[in-house]
Amino acid sequence: NYRGPFAIMTVLFFMWGFMTVFNDILIPRFKEPFTLDYYHAMFVQLAFFGAYFIGSLFYFIISAAAGDPIAKIGYKNGVVIGLLIAAAGSALFWPAAAEISYGLFLAGLFVVGLGFAMLQIAANPYVTILGPERTASSRLNLAQAFNSLGTTIGPLIGGYLIFEYFAKTGAHGAESVKIPYLTFCIIFLVLAVVFFVIRLPHVGEGKVEPGMGALKYPHVVLGVLAIFMYVGGEVSVGSSIINFLGQPSVAGLSPVEASKYVSLFWGGMLIGRFMGAV
Fold it and tell me: How far apart are CA 157 and CA 169, in angstroms?
């Protein structure tokens, strides 16, 4: 019975969706205190998703040369390592806020992105093999729906905390993100301990074969390109919508009000993934 392990894995999908969408809030929040133009403000997403690319590329090179590392260390250990890396990146927000350093914030986001890349490498295939092969795609869609649930709730909570609650305390724009990311750090550390001590089934592990793997098949390469285009469009819209709706000539909304529309955007993804799972 894999229902218990699957339920535990969905917590990870929710958490990294919840935290990923905070980038959409950081862009307008950092823009004012660091006097950034739109080009430099978008470095938030460049640092975060650039870490995905670099981390995944590094992982692929190791896999092609010496075999899949997850097959050696196990899915559970891969999840624990990813959580610890994400916790370390979140912790960097504290000294970044103290020094009011945009570069250190970007470094923290890069480390968080590396951790999330490791989580995705371990969690996505693990969910597909926690049960019958014929329902693998449905399980992955259901897990991703919880990811979308996190991205739907994230802007509402993050927008209130960063633009209203901590702003009322008189905190500098950079300092208003310090407590939320310290909380993320603690949550990731707790989850790492939980995943380290719980029993998870060892399935699909043990085969360590160097080579190109699934990339030997042309349709997989085309799928990679399709996902690249899709994620690029998705992230671009989510990253720009708060600033776009805040312009007087468009809607003139406050950042908190615009954050609600970000939730609606990601809520559409939530509905689509739940329907895909069904």
Answer: 17
Longest dimension (CA), the chain: 58
Asked whether 85 and 118 are in contact (CB, 8 A), the reply is yes
CB–CB of 38/171 below 8 Å?
Answer: no
Tokens of 206: 């043990």
pLDDT digits (tens, 9 = 90+) for 150-188: 777 877 777 777 777 666 655 556 777 888 888 889 999
Angstrom distances, CA of residue 166 to CA of 161, 180, 187, 274 = 6, 10, 20, 34
Closest to 100 in 3D by CA, of 35, 184, 149 = 35
Q: Where are the beta strands (DSSP E) in 31-98?
A: none
CB–CB of 111/89 below 8 Å?
A: yes
pLDDT tens for 45-87 read 889 989 988 988 888 888 888 777 887 888 888 889 999 999 9
The pTM for the full model equals: 0.82
